[in-house]
Amino acid sequence: MARDGGIKRFQQRMQAMPAAVRKAVGPAAYRGAEEIADMAETLAPEDSGDLKGSIVVTGPGNMTPPYSHPGGAHRVPEGAAAVSVGTSDVRYPHLQEFGTRHHPAQPFFWPAFRMLRKRSANRIKRAMSKAVKDNWGAGK
């Protein structure tokens, strides 16, 4: 059984939704991802600024940067957005986040995600509910 982080299940659920609802989810997900990225930048330690500069939000249909944390390059599905840290020049975000034997952990990515996850999920739910209410019976 392949472990895809729930992407296949997410894609199946998105395909089952009406088009208007799918369209409403994208901007809400992207806004939530931007907030998480902003918080991660705030929490990231700054020596040279390279780490903070490598935090990016990738929209649907685009590829995340190679060597990015978490999980490297992948295509972002419809109705989603991805926050990633790291580039081909900045390959150490996971070492900063989790630490090494010689360097204590300085978490910034996952605390930002945990702090804003519920807020982002609620924003998406509100956008979906609004799209359903606005389009109720539109197909008749």
Short description:
This protein is mainly α.
What does this structure look like?
- The protein has 140 residues and is mostly helical.
- It has a domain of 96 residues.
- It has a two-stranded antiparallel sheet.
- The radius of gyration is 17 Å and the shape is elongated.
Feature tags:
single chain; mainly alpha; 5 helices; 51% helix; 6% strand; elongated
Termini separation comes to: 41 Å
**Given the helix and strand composition, which structural class is it?**
mainly alpha
Number of helices: 5
* Low confidence ranges: none
- Rg from C-alpha positions? 17 Å
Layout of SSEs?
Blueprint: H1 7-16, H2 19-43, H3 50-53, E1 55-58, E2 82-85, H4 93-98, H5 109-134
Antiparallel strand pairs: 1-2
